[in-house]
Amino acid sequence: MTFDFMFFAMAIPAVIFAGISKGGFGSGAAFAATPLLALVLEPAIAVGMMLPLLMLMDVGALRPYWKKWDWGSARVLLIGSVPGILVGAVFFRFADPDLFRFLIGLVAVGFVAFQAARARGLLAPATRPMSDRAGIIAGVAAGFTSFVSHAGGPPAAIYLLTKGLTKTSYQATTVILFWAINLFKFVPYLALGIFSKNTFLADLYLAPFAIVGVYLGVWFHRLVPEKLFFALTYTLLLATGTKLIWDGLT
Fold it and tell me: Which of 1, 189, 208, 241 could form a disulfide with 198 if both were Cys (CB 3.0 to 4.6 A apart)?
């Protein structure tokens, strides 16, 4: 990893973008940073660099959403996330970089398709809350996708959107959920050698931008409509996801 102009030109906006989403504006889009970084870094380096920054963002987001979460829903998803993380660790151990590029790209494009289907009413939330068993299955998917690409938001959203939560309660639940999931991921990442001296040095450079992003997100969550942010998010994810799929296949 070289700390040149191209690195910072991609990394700084990506980290601010993720922080804004973690702060509650454009919920679920924080993982957009990983596909962007995977365009200029090896996928393992991208996810390894992002995890400490996401953990820092989680801490910054905990205070404004403290105890506003639905703990019952978060607990069910957390139970499922543990085996999902373990499966992700095994997958990460044996997969090659091109497979990860393809998977990260597929998740990115899938996220856009998921949100577009919701917006058009093709995937309307269930009229009844999902069962705990369904929540555990969603947690497994969230744990796995979070481990390999920091993209656990959509599986968690499928479950949480059936719970009738308010906007703030929904965001608070995702904050506590992914704060815990990211803590769970840290030890397997360490064991797999995903972290390096360079990833931690990059984190030191980018940490201020992560904090700024979170507080911008909290402010935007309270005051600003999300349409423009979502449009930008989906455009970036569709473009980067398509590029990563192409790179992974070719």
Answer: 1
